[in-house]
Amino acid sequence: MTSHIADVLIPLALDTAYSYAVPDGLPLREGDVVQVPLGTREVAGVVWSLRPGSGANFKSVAGRIEAPPLSPQMRRFLDWVAWYTLAPKGSALAMGLKLADGERPEAVRVGVRLAGAPPRRMTPARQRVVALAGDGLVRLKRELAQEAGVSIGVVDGLIDEGTLETVALLAEPVAESPDPDFSRNHLSEDQRAAAEALAGTLSETPAPVTLLEGVTGSGKTEVYFEAVAEAVRQGRQALILMPEIALTAQFLDRFAARFGVKPATWHSGVTGRKRERLYAGIASGEVKVVAGARSALFLPYARLGLIVVDEEHETAYKQEDGVHYHARDMAVVRGRIENAAVVLASATPSIETRVNAARGRYRHVRLPERFGGRQLPRIRAVDLRREQIPRGRWLSPSLIAAMEESLGQGEQVLLFLNRRGYAPLTLCRACAHRYECPNCSAWLVEHRFRRSLVCHHCGHVERTPQACIACGSVDSLVSCGPGVERIAEEVAELFPEKRGIVLSSDFPGGTERLRRELAAIAAGEFDIVIGTQLVAKGHNFPLMTLVGVLDADIGLTSGDPRAAERTFQLLQQVTGRAGRGEKPGRALVQTWQPDHPVIAALVSGDAERFYREETRVREMAGLPPFGRLASLIVSAAEREAAEAHARAMAKVAEPPPGVTVLGPAEAPLALIRGRYRFRLLVKTEREVDLQGYLRAWMARCPKVRGNTRVAIDVDPQSF
Ligand code: ADP
Ligand code: ZN
Ligand code: ZN
């Protein structure tokens, strides 16, 4: 006989919680992590809800797992994410539930927190303990007694009566606590006003979202650190989200200079015991500040007071497999649920965020000038139609002259080209065969260092052949177009004395080595840095005075309506690397279309005009944020299967007024990893319940068969 039923959500791609009987004598609460039978095995899950009932028809919960329970806010957040993205609820849970995969860490210290049972007898001493513990945080027994000004015996008594419960804590603290007053920089007038505005939002209910917009080098980091300090002072937690690569030693050192210790960091490279300890420390509230990649948004914070989304416009915030979510948008939701203030920081905010600020949904705080009277770099377009560049060369005479000048004065140069490898296309001069990926509709990119041809979509690698695989001609292969490796070759010929380094995601040695090299660049150990967008953003290289953009037009030719915005943001970021130290900086931008609005805005520095125009175009086209979009990708190993299923779906789309369904058409990359892809696009007016419509449509669709898959992407980033 049991008296309760637990609906347990299992972190697998399942859309609903399963019901289990709660055995008598197993005290369970909503949010507890439990072990339950599923088919022939036992799996972990979370009690999503508890209700009275006999449970006679159900299997029983096998037991509780010693893991931090998920708070009601956390469960609401995961429910919301699943609802918004149309992902199975269990998949959303899988992002938020991290269980130990080995033996439990040694738990030596004992923490206590409020359990709920009222004490049998209330005394003033007990009253003080209960009031303190009312915030739900885990404290050491000794700390709780001390803070409440009572003896340990009073706390023990409350544990015996079930008013407090014990929680095992890790032997050593997971992370040392940042000191909000360790060392404060003297802020400029603008910075101080901005910092006060941000810190103030932590005391508001509901806590607002603020766009912190400031040109590169204006001190956004310094400013949001003050909001972080305020969170720590209030005994709350702060999360700083960053595009993964921005988690550099440089950032961690800056944090340490301000707060005395480095923040805890969370990203895909944090594994094993360390990850487990952090997770537990975040759940208990012991860890005060986390700097992390987008996945850090799904941690079980005990008392979140602030979320900073640094470089909020970054595409890296969008997860495009599994649960398709945008971490910036989900941060705003999590902030609302936890009553945590949210700060979106950027030099080049997304149009979505700008529009939200303009409509008054977000606050808007600006830092219009670089710190310390430093000037923004002077930007000049180099018109490639006018400059003579020999075949197989990519640096214009103007750029070379500027490099000579800067290098001559011992300064650093960054050459930016957003193309990995040596050459984006390889073909045979004899038979015109183009080397294409066998699994994707994409050209193979030559990587000369590795002597191979590589697919950037699926990772397929083949050795660069000696003779053409199509016609057998020897020495007939030609590399077309430049990649960063090829630029490095040209630079080595032009400046043989100078120390150059190529940085792209192909950089051997992993993230650690990359971090070291970034630090070495900042320290002036290289003269010329040749890099992809990996080096374009967030970094502070004080000796860098010249940035050369080799091909500003790369991003502009795609059919994506966001292409202009993206390119503008990227070029603004890259050119913003120049002149962040004592000496002023400049940027030369090589382009075939100097009159293009993106290039013109960049050169004139009139970002406002560019954004106004882009926003108007979006509004007229009914594109986000003025309308809503979802993309549905149907994929299968056979082209016919994918197309047939996409057509069958389109047949039952039945769009109501305000909804348009486009397609199916071949997806922009029609073949990836051996799977053929067709796309349906849903475009709706702003007020339409997009999720409601999609759910109703999916329910009408035929079931997928075989290896056919449908992936739904609400708010796709490219379309
Ligand atoms: P942003 O994030 O806006 O690009 P940062 O916060 O990285 O700007 O600041 C740019 C540079 O200026 C950094 O080297 C930073 O240390 C320095 N800086 C900014 N504000 C101050 C300040 N108030 N005192 C001292 N240095 C500052
Ligand atoms: Zn050939
Ligand atoms: Zn491929």
Structure characterization notes:
- This protein is α/β, with parallel strands linked by helices.
- It folds into five domains: 75 residues, GIY-YIG endonuclease (3-Layer(aba) Sandwich); 59 residues; 179 residues, Rossmann fold (3-Layer(aba) Sandwich), CATH 3.40.50.300; 184 residues, Rossmann fold, CATH 3.40.50; 88 residues, Alpha-Beta Plaits (2-Layer Sandwich), CATH 3.30.70.
- The protein is 30% helix and 24% strand.
- The chain is built from 19 helices and 30 strands.
- The strands form seven sheets. A seven-stranded parallel beta sheet has the order 11-12-10-13-14-9-15, sandwiched between helices.
- The radius of gyration is 28 Å and the shape is globular.
- Bound molecules: adenosine-5'-diphosphate (ADP) and zinc ion (2 copies).
- The site of one zinc ion (ZN) has 9 residues, from loops.
- This is Replication restart protein PriA.
- Its EC number is 5.6.2.4.
- It catalyses: Couples ATP hydrolysis with the unwinding of duplex DNA by translocating in the 3'-5' direction; ATP + H2O = ADP + phosphate + H(+).
- It holds the Pfam family PriA_3primeBD.
